[in-house]
């Protein structure tokens, strides 16, 4: 049995005749008829009942057609996938990022990816976690770097960075001389946080509720530099990821450990789909290997 014989059978079944089938597959009627007869002899059954006026599938032919369609569909899909891999270097990826992504080593990761795959274009769309998840679910972006982990069977999350939250105060705040501060002791503090739709905000508020209180959030802001400016001016204290706080260290600011530890991880998230674009599959693999080698 050969693939072209399956194509011939499907064409004859489609048109219930040899004339139009031969035209579609661009072969002669005699060649078409010979190939189908050869296949029937090999199978030991007749696939078509032939009369002078029509060609109809036999019961065995109807069964055979079902499998032939599945086989050709699988082959076509395999060819499509391989074709995509052959040309993925010309692909384009639209990645969602949270505003503080630059405080991690993700820009360095993307630069490394571009050096290895210069013909893949990267576009970045900045927003908070909730908005990025919404865009990912509706396929408006290919992947996203987010803080907050969600339980959703439609999504797949890859841990990229493991971090934890810290308290940031002015040098004159009562906490400034402490090595650590208990989460419950933040109950009466004015707190400055990233926006409510950010993963950081969500995770911190959930931790406070688990500790038995609702945090008094004075200001929300997406700019770390602005948050630290408010802290330095003693409007309140901030709770940030330790990597973020460390990179934007300023004079007049103190960073204090928080207990119990509130983990703050960074994830690369995509749709949980085996048919992701080849360029995205390569980006995921490259990212995981790069993170592992750099021990971020």
Automatic annotation (TrEMBL):
<dbReference type="InterPro" id="IPR000847">
    <property type="entry name" value="LysR_HTH_N"/>
</dbReference>
<dbReference type="InterPro" id="IPR005119">
    <property type="entry name" value="LysR_subst-bd"/>
</dbReference>
<dbReference type="GO" id="GO:0003677">
    <property type="term" value="F:DNA binding"/>
</dbReference>
<dbReference type="InterPro" id="IPR036390">
    <property type="entry name" value="WH_DNA-bd_sf"/>
</dbReference>
<dbReference type="Pfam" id="PF03466">
    <property type="entry name" value="LysR_substrate"/>
</dbReference>
<keyword id="KW-0804">Transcription</keyword>
<comment type="similarity">
    <text>Belongs to the LysR transcriptional regulatory family.</text>
</comment>
<keyword id="KW-0805">Transcription regulation</keyword>
<dbReference type="GO" id="GO:0003700">
    <property type="term" value="F:DNA-binding transcription factor activity"/>
</dbReference>
<protein>
    <submittedName>
        <fullName>HTH-type transcriptional regulator CynR</fullName>
    </submittedName>
</protein>
<keyword id="KW-0238">DNA-binding</keyword>
<feature type="domain" description="HTH lysR-type">
    <location>
        <begin position="1"/>
        <end position="58"/>
    </location>
</feature>
<dbReference type="InterPro" id="IPR036388">
    <property type="entry name" value="WH-like_DNA-bd_sf"/>
</dbReference>
<dbReference type="Pfam" id="PF00126">
    <property type="entry name" value="HTH_1"/>
</dbReference>
<dbReference type="GO" id="GO:0032993">
    <property type="term" value="C:protein-DNA complex"/>
</dbReference>
């Amino acid at each position: 049995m050969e693939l072209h014989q399956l194509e011939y059978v499907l064409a004859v079944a489609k048109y219930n005749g040899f004339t139009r089938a031969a035209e579609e597959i661009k072969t002669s009627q005699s060649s078409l008829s010979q190939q189908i007869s050869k296949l029937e002899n090999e199978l030991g059954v007749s696939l078509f009942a032939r009369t002078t006026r029509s060609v109809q599938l036999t019961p065995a032919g109807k069964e055979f057609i079902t499998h032939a369609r599945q086989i050709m569909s699988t082959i076509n899909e395999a060819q499509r996938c391989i074709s995509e891999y052959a040309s993925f270097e010309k692909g384009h990826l639209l990645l969602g990022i949270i505003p503080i992504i630059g405080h991690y080593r993700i820009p360095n990761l993307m630069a490394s990816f571009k050096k290895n795959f210069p013909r893949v274009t990267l576009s970045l769309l900045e927003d908070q976690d909730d908005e990025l998840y919404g865009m990912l679910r509706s396929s408006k972006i290919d992947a996203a770097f987010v803080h907050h982990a969600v339980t959703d069977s439609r999504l797949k999350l890859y841990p990229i960075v493991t971090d934890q939250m810290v308290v940031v105060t002015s040098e004159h705040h009562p906490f400034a001389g402490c090595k650590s501060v208990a989460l419950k002791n933040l109950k009466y503090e004015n707190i400055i946080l990233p926006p409510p739709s950010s993963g950081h905000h969500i995770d911190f508020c959930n931790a406070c509720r688990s500790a038995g209180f609702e945090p008094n959030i004075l200001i929300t802001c997406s700019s770390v530099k602005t948050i630290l400016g408010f802290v330095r001016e003693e409007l309140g204290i901030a709770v940030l990821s330790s990597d973020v706080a460390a990179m934007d260290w300023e004079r007049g600011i103190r960073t204090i450990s928080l207990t119990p530890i509130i983990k703050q991880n960074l994830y690369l998230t995509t749709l949980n789909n085996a048919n992701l674009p080849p360029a995205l599959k390569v980006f995921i693999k490259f990212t995981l290997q790069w993170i592992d080698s750099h021990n971020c």
